Amino acid sequence: MLLNRFGDRIFKFFVYLILVLVLLVTFLPFWNILVLSLNSAEDTVRGGVYLWPRVPTLDSYSQILKDSEILNGLWVTVKRTVIGAPLSVLVITMLAYPLSRRNLVGRKGWNLYFIFTMYFGGGLIPYYMVLKALNMIDTFSVFILPSLMNVFYMIIVRTFMEQLPHEIEESAKVDGANDLTIFFRIVMPLTTPVLATVGLFQAIGHWNSWFDSYAFTYSSDLKTLQAVLVKILSQFQTGGMVSQTQMLANSTKRNAVSSDTIRMAATMVATLPIILVYPFLQKYFVKGMTLGAVKS
């Protein structure tokens, strides 16, 4: 008995040790980016800034937030996330509901049809040609319509719905409820945990997306924040904008910014907003993933 308790303590010790190491490995790089973004550019060049800013300043953030291109990119990203994520959750749920019903004609065939699309695709060029034929190139709809359906998330929601008691649906039909009433007033409230989880995943996908803006839009008004960030990072790596930003900083009688501090500040501006969403959805996130991932 004592050996079992001692073994359990040793096991828990190593589990906690591994978790702490994983936390440090994932958190410290992010913390270092924040520290560098808050440190003076002149002091950053000296190196040795890791855990705390030696000369705290907000010059890099001030420079970033003065850029109209970044502000427009932030607006486009917020708009596509606010519109795209809820619409995607609605479409995914409306497809998952009939596929979860055992009395659906051809249920197996429909499920195999959608699963097939997860493994086989036409590639980038046919995808571009389809978008062009639908007149979606260089329009805001290219951010919303192609991402409305995600088969993997649909399977998670479908599996969750299959575990709901069928007696609830039967009793609702006895009371005169039709399929739409059952779906919106019974099924969707009961699937709130998994819907919140899928909504979070979709929101993160929209927020972090940059390739569709880079490849399928030409207007600067349609560039997302992540696409602007990629542009900033590449330009500062080549040194193309360093002199311009330094001249602007000097002209406003502020401390000069460097390519490192600008890149770190831009990364934080693009990352922090979506991170702040996690605490509000954490309770749904854990429950939704565990209940929707295992078929009973």
TrEMBL record:
It comes from the Bacteria. InterPro entries: MetI-like (IPR000515), MetI-like_sf (IPR035906). PROSITE patterns: ABC_TM1. Residues 74-281 form the ABC transmembrane type-1 domain. Keywords: Cell membrane, Membrane, Transmembrane, Transmembrane helix, Transport. Pfam families: BPD_transp_1. It is found in: Cell membrane. It is a multi-pass membrane protein. The chain crosses the membrane at residues 13-34, 81-100, 112-130, 142-161, 182-204, 262-281. Belongs to the binding-protein-dependent transport system permease family. This is Carbohydrate ABC transporter permease. It comes from Paenibacillus illinoisensis. The lineage of its organism: Bacteria, Bacillati, Bacillota, Bacilli, Bacillales.
